[in-house]
């Protein structure tokens, strides 16, 4: 009985209690929509920025689901072709925000820049989400490890998705 009481007491005051929905309203949250090759960054319950992106050249290349940012890197190394970070030939650009899709460690799937700005808006990647250089650098500075990334393929609006996921409230909607 003493063990159960101690466990309950410790659980209630644990930093991960209560175990519930994530993101919590106000947390940083990224939504990627493969249907229109756009992404949004939500923070403090509001859409902070909308980005044009590129996703997988085949529908199943860019995984769908909710993932967690687990690694970040400036001037990432491109392992596939042994290209050092900072090299203009590096297709990952200047920033890497890796997430844990398909049971990976954040080094296979990620949000990253590009050395080919004209590819943005197209279905051309091997599975990652490609951003304009200035966009990924802006995002990189605002996204902490642990941020949730939701990748969908839908005609729903970003606002509807964010409301459904608990990343925004009605008060955070853009009113025109």
TrEMBL record:
Key words, A-Z: Cell shape, Cell wall biogenesis/degradation, Peptidoglycan synthesis, Signal, Transferase
Record keyword Transferase present: yes
L,D-TPase catalytic domain: residues covered: 28-152
Domain of life of the organism encoding this protein: Bacteria
Signal peptide start-end: 1-20
Active site: 112, 128
The enzyme's E.C. designation: 2.-.-.-
Functional pathway: Cell wall biogenesis; peptidoglycan biosynthesis
Matches recorded under Pfam families: YkuD
GO-annotated molecular function: transferase activity
Stored InterPro entries: LD-transpeptidase, LD_TPept_cat_dom, Transpep_catalytic_dom
Record carries keyword Coiled coil: no
Name by which UniProt lists this protein: L,D-transpeptidase
